[in-house]
Write a structure and sequence with these properties.
Residues 742-1263 form the Hydantoinase B/oxoprolinase domain. By secondary structure, the chain is an alpha+beta fold. The protein is 28% helix and 24% strand. The protein has 25 helices and 57 strands. The protein has an eight-stranded mixed sheet, sandwiched between helices. The chain has a seven-stranded antiparallel sheet with strand order 39-38-42-41-40-43-44, sandwiched between helices. β46 and β47 form a beta hairpin. α4 (176-188) packs across α5, α11 (458-482) packs parallel to α16 and α18 (803-815) crosses α22 (1036-1051). It is globular and about 90 Å long. The two termini are 50 Å apart.
Length: 1298
C-alpha cells in the first residue's frame, strides 16, 4: 500500500527536538528547501522559549519579513509542528510539576515512599532517594481482595468480576463522607491535582471511578486514576505512574499553552504533534505526563531506525546518541524494542517506552584524576555551566578533551558562547585547565613511580580521558546486546548527536563492529526523526488467563475491540482507514515466574492451536529462547495484558538523493589532529560539498553545520547517494603496551576486568532457571588472580563483596597442583569462604596455552532457593548445627575433565535427608540447571580473559591485575590518612574502639589503630563473644565482606573492589568467636543478621553515622503447597549533615519487596498495612529514619517463621543523638490475644490471625541543638545532571537490590 503524503504544499513544516543543552530545529520550506538550526535550550535573557525562537528565526530568514521576538508568529505560514521536549523529564528531575495529592487505600499511605524498599546507591550512607511527587496523601477507607478457593475466612460480602475475569470480594465499600472531608482539606491547601491508586484497581476500577467522580465534582482540575492511566498489576508502580500523570500533565498543558500563545491566527489551524516515549506522535490534547518522559530521545530512535536499518541485509543497528548532557544507547532490528516499566528520577513508570539506555553524561561528562586513575563521569557539567570551553567557568569535560586535541575546529563550531552569545569555544581556558590537570597527573605519577616515571604531555592526558570515556560507553552497549543473546559485533553503529561523530570510529572498533552509519542530519537526528515519525494511539487492558485453546476466542475478541478503539481514535485525528495499521501484542510469562515478555505474532502466523491474530505462544517461546537460552517444558503460559498499537502512517518521504561525484573530493584545509602516538596532518572536508560516491581515507575531519565527524586512521568513509556517511572500520594499528604502570591503561583495564565480571553475570542470568537468580538477580560473578586474590567483582551485593576471594584461596590451599584444565569446583562451606549454605560458589581455573598453573580464576556465587535442611528454603530460624541447614560442599569437583558430575552432585544435594528431621533439596532440577548456568557463566569469563591475553599478552594482563589491586590499596590508604587526621583533630588519638551486642547478649567488639603516616590500620575483633548455640555465627568471609563494604562507603567514590582494599588492613579475628565459628556451627543467621551488626560496630568506631536498623527482618510463611520469603525495610541511621532515610533497606541487604497486589494474588494472605512507623527514628540534630509497620492477615493455616534482630538492643545514636526504636514481632490472634513472638521463632498461624511487624528505626546523630557537626567521611555530593534509564539501568538496579 503506497503511503498517502499528508504534507500540504506552500507552508513551512517544523520538526523540533528540545534537548537538555541544545534545541534542534529541522524545517522544510515551501519551495522544498531544508533548513536546520541549533540554539541553546535555556537562554532566558534572549528568549523565553527555544522552540518558538527557532521557528521565528527560520520564518524571518526565509520570508524576509521582520518578526520581532516579542510578537506572536503567524501560524498561517505553518502546516505542522512536531516536537519532542524534555519538559516532562526536567520537571521530574527538578521536582517542578503540579502540586499533587495521592489518594490510596487505607493502610498504604507510605507505599510510594517505601517503594520497593531498595536504595539507589548501596554505598551511599546518606541514602539519597528522590522525593515522592505528591505533597499530601489521603487514605481511602475501602478494600477489595482477590477471591481464593482455599480461603478459610468467610465473609458475607459482594463479589465482583474484574476486567481480567478474576473474582474479587468487596470487604469494605468506600466511606464517601470521610473521602469528601479529606478532599476538601486538600482543596483548602490549594491542591488541585489528585492521583488515585487503590488496591487491585488494575482489574476492578469501580472504587477509583467513584473517587474520581467525587473529586471532579468538588473542583479538582486534574484527576489521574491509575486504572485509566495504566491498568497493569502492582500497586506501587501503577501508583507512581498515576502520580507522574497527575504531576506532569498539568505542567505539560501549561507549557503547551505558553508555547502556542506565541502564535496568532488560531493554533488549531496547524497540526501540532508531540513525540511520546514509545516513538509515536500524539496531538497536544493526548500528550500525557506519564508518556512524555522520553519525548526527545525517542525521536532519535525513529530517525536512525527509518534511515539506517536495511530491509535487505536485516543487520541490526545500535543507536548511539551522544549529546552535550547525556549519551543514549538503543537497538533496532526491524521493530522498535519497548519496555513497559522503567525508573526515571526515582519514579517507576508503567507505560510503553522505547528501550533507550542513558549510559553516560555525554560531552559534558566531567574529567577527574582520582587516586591514580583517569575517571570520566558519571557527574555532568550539564548545560550550565557546561564544559570549560563554554565560557561559564565550568569544569573540564569530554568536549574540552576533543577541543584541545584538534578534533573540534573552532571556526566551524557554533559561535553562541559568552555573555553576548557570539563568542567561539574558549581554547585558551581549556588548555590552561588541562595544563593544571597534566601537572597534577605528573606529580602523582612521580610520587608513585619515583625517578623512573616519564611525564605525560597535555595531549597524552587529554587522549587518555577520551580512551577512558570510550571504554566507559562501550560497557553498557555490550550489556544491552549480550543480555538479550545478541552478538555485539554483528551490528551497525548508527551515530548521531552533536558529540557522537567524534567517538564513532573508536567505539565501533572496541566493540568489533565493522560499519558506522552517520546520517547527514546526525547533529539533529532526533529532530529529523520527529518529521519521519507516525502518529500512534495505544489501547491496553489487563488479563489473567492461560494462553490455551479455551481462551483463544476471548483473547481474539478483546484484540478486535482494542483495535477498533485505536482505529476510531486515529480517524478522529484525520487519518483515513487505509492509512491506519494496528499491531497486536500479548504480555506473556511462564506460570510461577515474573519474567513477562511483550510479544507480537508478526512472523508467526495463526494455526489451529493459536489465536486467529497469530501464534503468540510460538513467538513467546522463540523470544524466550533467544534471550535466555532455553524454554521451560510442561509449564503453562499466562497472559498478563492485551495491547494494541494503532499507527497512523505519516507518509513522509525520507529519500533525498544528492548529486553523484564527478571528481575527487575537495578538502578545504589540513590541520594537525592528535591521535594515539602523536599529531597527524588531517584533511578537513565540508559534508555539504561532498557528493554521492566520494570516498575519504582516514585520518580526516568532516564538518557539518551541527556536528563534527572524526574519521580515524585506517578507516574509510563513503558518501552515499543520499548524502549520508558510511564508515568502514579498519583493524587499526595495535600499540604495544608494557607491563609498567600507565595511568590511562590502568583505567581502561579496570573497565575491561569489570566488564568481564558483568558479562559473566549476564550469561548466568540468561541461562539460570530459578526465580532467585533469573529474576531477583541474587548472584555475583568475579575474576581472581593466580593467587586467588580478587581482581573485579560485579555487580555488587554487599554480603558477597570480597567473600569469594576466601573461597578461591581455600581451594588453592586445599587442591594446589591437582587442579586441571576442565575442572570446576563447587563450594559453600563456611570454613571454605562460604557465607551461608544456600550461596553456592562455582570456581573455574583459567589455563592459558602451555602455562602449567592457572593464570586466573573465575567464580560465580548464586543463592539457591533450597538445598535441603530442616525447613523449606534452607533458612531455618532455630538451626543449631550446619547439618540442619542443608547440603554442604567443601571442595567438590562439579566438572571433571569437562564432564558435569550430575549423579555425584545429585547425591550430595540429597545427603541432608540422612539427618533426623531434615530433607534433601526440594528443588533438585532448579539446582542442577542453575549450577550448569554458573559453569556457563565461568566459561564466558574464561573466553573474555583469554581474548584479553591474546591481545595484550599474559605478562601485561597480569601486571595490570596487580596495578589495579595496588590502586585500590592506594585509595584506601588515602582514606585512612584522612580519617586518621580528622579523628586525631576530634579526639586527640588515632585509636578507635566500639562495641555492640546481638540480642542474645553476645558482644561484637572492634579496636582500630590507624597509622596516619602509612595509611594503614589494624582492625582487631578481640573481645568479641564466643560461638553461639544458634545460627547467628558469621563465617570469616562475612566479616571481610562487611569490612570491604564499610571501607568503600567511607572512600566516597568508585574504586576497584578487590583484594587491594584490604591490603592496608590487618584483620585480627580470634578463634572460637561468633565471627570464627567451628566447622559444624549453624551460620544462616550470621549472613543475614550478624553481618549487619558487624557493619554497625565498624561505622560506630569510625564515628561516621548512627546505627541503621541492623536487621534484615527475615519473614517466611508457607505449608506443603506454598512458600513465601521476604525481608523488610527499616530506618537508616543519621549522619553529620543528613537525616536517616525512613523505610529502606540498609547496609548488607538491598532486597526488593514483593508488591502487595502480587502477594495477595499468589499467596493466602492479605497485606493490611505497610507504612512508616512515625517518630520511631532516634531524635538528634539529624534524625534517624523511621522503621515500618507491616501487617499480614492469614487466610488459612500456615507456618510462620521469623528470623530477626534488634528486638532487645536499640540501634545506637551517635554524638548525642538518641537511639532508634527497637523492632517488635507481634501475633494478633483472631480470639483477641496479642502475643510477642520474640526475635526468632516458628509458629503455626490460623485463619484470621494477623502478624504485625514493627521494624527497627535508625539512630539520631548529634545533640538536637548542635549545629556544628561536619562530615567525617568523603561522601560524594555531585549528582549527575542526567537521568539513568533503560533496561541496562533496570538490570543494575535489580542486581544491586537482590
Amino acid at each position: 500500500m503506497a503511503p498517502v503524503v499528508l504534507i500540504s504544499k506552500g507552508k513551512f513544516k517544523f520538526a523540533i527536538d528540545r534537548g537538555g543543552t541544545f534545541t534542534d530545529v529541522y524545517a522544510e520550506c515551501p519551495q522544498g528547501r531544508v533548513v536546520v538550526t541549533k540554539l541553546l535550550s535555556e537562554d532566558p535573557t534572549n528568549y523565553p522559549d527555544a522552540p518558538r525562537e527557532g521557528i521565528r528565526r527560520i520564518l524571518e530568514s526565509e520570508t524576509g519579513v521582520e518578526m520581532p521576538a516579542d510578537k506572536p508568529l503567524d501560524c498561517g505560514l505553518i502546516d505542522w509542528i512536531r516536537m519532542g521536549t524534555t519538559v516532562a523529564t526536567n520537571a521530574l528531575l527538578e521536582r517542578k510539576g503540579e502540586r499533587l495529592a495521592l489518594a490510596i487505600t487505607a493502610g498504604f499511605k507510605d507505599a510510594l515512599h517505601i517503594g520497593n524498599q531498595s536504595r539507589p546507591d548501596i554505598f551511599d550512607l546518606e541514602v539519597k532517594c528522590p522525593d515522592v511527587l505528591h505533597e499530601d496523601v489521603i487514605e481511602v477507607e475501602e478494600r477489595v481482595v482477590m477471591q481464593q478457593d482455599k480461603c478459610q475466612i468467610k465473609k458475607n460480602c459482594p463479589v465482583v468480576i474484574g476486567s481480567t475475569k478474576e473474582k474479587l470480594e468487596v470487604w469494605k465499600e468506600i466511606d464517601e463522607e470521610k473521602l469528601r472531608r479529606d478532599l476538601q482539606t486538600l482543596l483548602d491547601k490549594g491542591i488541585r491535582s489528585v492521583a488515585v491508586s487503590l488496591m487491585h484497581a488494575y482489574t476492578y476500577g469501580g472504587h477509583e471511578r467513584v473517587v474520581g467522580k467525587i473529586a471532579s465534582e468538588m473542583g479538582f482540575t486534574q484527576v489521574s486514576l491509575s486504572s485509566d492511566v495504566m491498568p497493569m498489576v502492582r500497586l506501587v508502580p501503577r501508583g507512581y505512574t498515576a502520580c507522574a500523570d497527575g504531576y506532569l500533565t498539568p505542567h505539560i498543558k501549561t507549557y503547551i499553552k505558553n508555547f502556542t500563545s506565541g502564535f496568532k491566527g488560531g493554533i488549531d489551524k496547524m497540526k501540532v504533534l508531540f513525540m511520546q516515549s514509545d516513538g509515536g506522535l500524539a496531538p497536544a490534547n493526548k500528550f500525557l505526563g506519564s508518556r512524555a518522559i522520553l519525548s526527545g530521545p525517542a525521536g532519535g530512535v525513529v530517525g536512525y531506525a527509518m534511515t539506517t536499518y536495511s530491509q535487505k541485509t536485516k543487520l541490526p543497528v545500535i543507536g548511539f546518541d551522544m549529546g552535550g548532557t547525556s549519551t543514549d544507547v538503543s537497538r533496532y532490528a526491524g521493530s522498535y524494542e519497548h519496555v513497559f516499566e522503567t525508573t526515571t528520577a526515582g519514579v517507576t513508570i508503567q507505560a510503553p517506552q522505547l528501550d533507550i539506555n542513558t549510559v553516560a553524561a555525554g560531552g559534558g561528562s566531567k574529567l577527574f584524576y582520582r587516586a591514580g586513575m583517569f575517571v570520566v563521569g558519571p557527574e555532568s557539567a550539564g548545560a550550565h555551566p557546561g564544559p570549560t570551553c563554554y565560557r561559564k567557568g565550568g569544569p573540564l569535560c569530554v568536549t574540552d578533551a576533543n577541543l584541545c586535541l584538534g578534533r573540534l575546529l573552532l571556526e566551524y563550531f557554533p559561535k553562541i558562547f559568552g555573555k553576548t552569545e557570539d563568542q567561539p569555544l574558549d581554547m585558551e581556558a581549556t588548555q590552561a585547565a588541562f595544563s593544571d590537570l597534566t601537572a597534577e597527573v605528573n606529580k602523582a605519577s612521580k610520587e608513585q613511580k619515583g625517578d623512573g616515571y616519564v611525564p605525560k604531555s597535555l595531549e597524552e592526558v587529554a587522549i587518555g580521558f577520551i580512551e577512558v570515556a570510550n571504554e566507559t560507553m562501550c560497557r553498557p552497549i555490550r550489556a544491552l546486546t549480550q543480555s538479550k543473546g545478541y552478538d555485539t559485533s554483528r551490528h551497525v553503529l548508527a551515530c548521531f548527536g552533536g558529540a557522537g561523530g567524534q567517538h564513532a570510529c573508536s567505539i565501533a572498533r572496541s566493540l568489533g563492529m565493522k560499519t558506522v552509519f552517520i546520517h547527514r542530519y546526525c547533529g539533529i537526528l532526533s529532530a529529523y526523526g520527529m518529521a519521519l515519525a507516525d502518529v500512534v494511539h495505544e489501547a491496553q487492558e489487563p488479563c489473567a488467563l492461560e494462553y490455551s485453546p479455551e481462551n483463544f476466542k476471548y483473547l481474539d475478541e478483546r484484540m478486535v475491540n482494542l483495535s477498533n478503539q485505536c482505529i476510531a481514535e486515529l480517524q478522529k485525528q484525520g487519518f483515513n482507514r487505509e492509512n491506519i495499521e494496528t499491531e497486536t501484542f500479548l504480555h506473556l510469562r511462564y506460570n510461577k515466574t515474573d519474567c513477562a515478555l511483550m510479544c507480537s505474532a508478526v512472523g508467526f502466523p495463526a494455526s489451529a492451536n493459536s489465536c486467529s491474530h497469530g501464534n503468540f505462544l510460538a513467538a513467546f517461546l522463540d523470544r524466550y529462547n533467544t534471550e535466555f537460552g532455553f524454554t521451560i517444558s510442561d509449564r503453562t503460559v499466562l497472559v498478563d495484558d492485551i495491547r494494541v498499537r494503532g499507527i497512523g502512517k505519516s507518509g513522509i518521504a525520507i529519500e533525498q538523493s544528492i548529486a553523484p561525484a564527478d571528481s575527487t573530493p575537495a578538502k578545504i584545509k589540513a590541520v594537525k589532529v592528535y591521535f594515539k602516538g602523536g599529531y597527524q596532518m588531517t584533511d578537513v572536508y565540508m559534508l555539504e560539498h561532498l557528493k554521492g560516491g566520494h570516498k575519504l581515507q582516514g585520518p580526516a575531519v568532516i564538518i557539518d553545520k551541527n556536528s563534527t565527524i572524526l574519521l580515524e586512521p585506517d578507516c574509510e568513509a563513503e558518501i552515499t547517494r543520499n548524502g549520508d556517511v558510511r564508515i568502514t572500520i579498519g583493524t587499526g594499528a595495535h600499540s604495544k603496551i608494557g607491563t609498567e604502570l600507565d595511568d590511562i591503561q590502568l583505567s581502561i583495564f579496570s573497565h575491561r576486568f569489570m566488564s568481564t565480571a558483568e558479562q559473566m553475570g549476564r550469561i548466568l542470568q540468561r541461562t539460570a532457571i530459578s526465580t532467585n537468580i533469573k529474576e531477583r538477580l541474587d548472584f555475583s560473578c568475579a575474576m581472581f588472580g593466580p593467587d586467588g586474590g580478587l581482581v573485579a567483582n560485579a555487580p555488587h551485593i554487599p554480603v558477597h563483596l570480597g567473600a569469594m576471594q576466601e573461597t578461591v584461596q581455600f581451594q588453592l590451599r586445599q587442591l594446589g597442583d591437582s587442579l586441571r584444565k576442565g575442572d570446576v569446583i563447587l563450594s559453600n562451606h563456611p570454613c571454605a569462604g562460604g557465607s551461608h549454605l544456600p550461596d553456592l560458589t562455582v570456581i573455574t581455573p583459567v589455563f592459558y596455552k602451555d602455562v602449567v598453573r592457572p593464570v586466573f580464576f573465575v567464580a560465580s556465587r548464586g543463592h539457591h532457593a533450597d538445598i535441603g535442611g530442616i525447613t523449606p528454603g534452607s533458612m531455618p530460624p532455630h538451626s543449631k548445627s550446619l547439618d540442619e541447614e542443608g547440603a554442604v560442599f567443601r571442595s567438590f569437583k562439579l566438572v571433571v575433565d569437562g564432564v558435569f558430575q550430575e549423579k555425584a552432585v545429585t547425591d550430595a544435594l540429597m545427603e541432608p535427608e540422612k539427618f533426623p528431621g531434615s530433607s534433601g533439596t526440594r528443588n533438585l532440577q532448579d539446582n542442577l540447571s542453575d549450577l550448569r548456568a554458573q559453569v556457563a557463566a565461568n566459561q564466558k569469563g574464561i573466553r573474555l580473559i583469554t581474548e584479553l591475553i591474546d591481545i595484550y599478552g599474559l605478562d601485561v594482563v597480569q601486571a595490570y591485575m596487580a596495578h589495579i589491586q595496588a590502586n585500590a590499596e592506594l585509595a584506601v590508604r588515602e582514606m585512612l590518612r584522612e580519617i586518621a587526621h580528622k579523628t586525631k583533630e576530634r579526639t586527640g588519638t588515632t585509636s578507635l574502639y566500639a562495641e555492640d551486642f546481638m540480642d542474645d547478649g553476645t558482644k561484637i567488639a572492634i579496636s582500630i589503630d590507624i597509622d596516619e603516616e602509612k595509611g594503614s590500620a589494624i582492625m582487631d575483633f578481640s573481645g568479641t563473644g564466643y560461638e553461639v548455640y544458634g545460627n547467628c555465627n558469621a563465617p570469616r568471609a562475612v566479616t571481610l565482606s562487611a569490612l570491604i563494604y564499610c571501607l568503600r562507603c567511607m572512600v566516597g567514590h568508585d574504586v576497584p573492589l578487590n583484594q587491594g582494599c584490604l591490603a592496608p588492613i590487618k584483620t585480627v579475628i580470634p578463634a572460637g568467636t561468633i565471627l570464627t565459628p567451628s566447622d559444624t556451627a549453624a551460620v544462616v543467621g550470621g549472613n543475614v543478621l550478624t553481618s549487619q551488626r558487624i557493619v554497625d560496630v565498624i561505622l560506630k568506631a569510625f564515628g561516621v553515622c548512627a546505627a541503621s536498623q541492623g536487621c534484615m527482618n527475615n519473614i517466611t510463611f508457607g505449608d506443603k503447597d506454598v512458600g513465601y520469603y521476604e525481608t523488610v525495610a527499616g530506618g537508616a541511621g543519621a549522619g553529620p549533615g543528613w537525616h536517616g532515610r525512613s523505610g529502606v533497606h540498609t547496609h548488607c541487604t538491598n532486597t526488593r519487596i514483593t508488591d502487595p497486589e502480587i502477594v495477595e494474588r499468589r499467596y493466602p494472605v492479605i497485606v493490611q498495612r505497610f507504612e512508616l512507623n512515625p517518630h520511631s527514628g532516634g531524635v538528634g540534630r539529624w534524625h534517624g529514619g523511621d522503621g515500618v509497620i507491616r501487617e499480614l492477615l492469614f487466610r488459612k493455616d500456615l507456618m510462620l517463621s521469623v528470623l530477626t534482630e534488634r528486638r532487645v538492643f536499640s540501634p545506637y545514636g551517635l554524638n548525642g543523638g538518641r537511639n532508634g526504636q527497637r523492632g517488635l514481632n507481634l501475633l494478633l490472634r483472631e480470639d483477641g490475644r496479642i502475643i510477642n513472638l520474640g526475635g526468632k521463632t516458628a509458629v503455626n498461624v490460623l485463619p484470621g490471625d494477623v502478624f504485625r511487624l514493627r521494624t527497627p528505626a535508625g539512630g539520631g546523630y548529634g545533640a538536637a541543638d548542635d549545629e556544628g557537626e561536619s562530615r567525617l567521611y568523603q561522601q560524594g555530593k555531585d549528582v549527575a545532571a542526567f537521568a539513568l534509564k533503560g533496561s541496562v539501568h533496570e538490570y543494575t538496579r535489580r542486581q544491586e537490590s537482590a
